[in-house]
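task queued by scheduler; priority normal; single chain, no ligands, no partner chains; default sampling; output format set to C-alpha cells
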Amino acid sequence: MARAAGKKQSKRKSAGRSARVARSGASRAGAKPRAAAKKKATRASEAKPRVKRAGPKPNTAPKRRPPLAPAVGGPARAAAAPSASARRAATAPAAFATQRAHASSREELLFELARARAAVKAAIQGLSIANASRPIAAGKWSPLEIVLHLGERDRVRLEEFHRTLHGQPRTWAGVSDAEQAVQNEQHLAPLRALTWDSAVRRLDSLREQLLLRLHEVPALPNDIWQRGHAFADMMWGLPEHDRHHADQIKRARTGEPVLTED
C-alpha cells in the first residue's frame, strides 16, 4: 500500500514538472517571433534615408523692368501727377450747387447775405480793442471804422427799402467814388465815439432789422429779386461789399497787402 502511494506522488510531481516545462517552452517560442519582428523594424527604420531640413531660401532681388523708351520728338519726361487738391477741384461741383439748384432768387439773395456776413464775423473774431482802433494801412480805415461803415450801409438800405421796392432807384446810384467817399465820411463822423463792443452790437442789430424786413417781402413777383430791378440792385450790392471789407481786415491781421477802398 505504501509503495502504491509513493508511486502516485512521483507520477504527480513528474506531471507538474512536464507542465511547467511545456509552458516555459511556449513562452520562449512566442518571445522569439516578437524579438525577430523588433529587429526587422529597427533595420527598416535605419535603412530609411534621413530627410534634410529645408534652410532659409536665399534672398533673390526682384527683376527690374527695363526703362521705357523716350517718346518720339524729345527726351522722356516724368508726368507730374495732379495733387489731391487739384483732383478734388476738378471733380467737385460748384460751391453750394445743391442749395442753388432749386433756389428762388429771393432764397439765393438771403443765402449770399448770410455767407458774406459770416465772413465779416470771422474776420473780426477775437480782435482786440487796441488793434480794432489801428488803421489797416496808411490812410485807410481802422477795423472799428469799417464795422461802423458796414452798419451804416445796412441802415441806409432800411431807409430806402420802400422806395426801391416800388421801382425807384437808390439815392447813391450813379454817384462817383469821390462823392461816395464824402458821404461815407459824413455818416462816420458822429459814430467814431462808439466803443468797439458798441460798434459790433450795432452791426449785428442793423443786419437783423434788415433781414426781418427782407423776410416780409414775398418771393413773387420774382422780378423784384432779380438784377435790373431797383430793389434787387440795391440788395445784391451788400454781399460783395461785406466780402470786400472782410478781406481787408483779414489781410491786415495776417500782414498781407490791403486792397484799396472802393
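post-processing summary
- The chain has a mean pLDDT of 78.
- The two ends are 161 Å apart (CA to CA).
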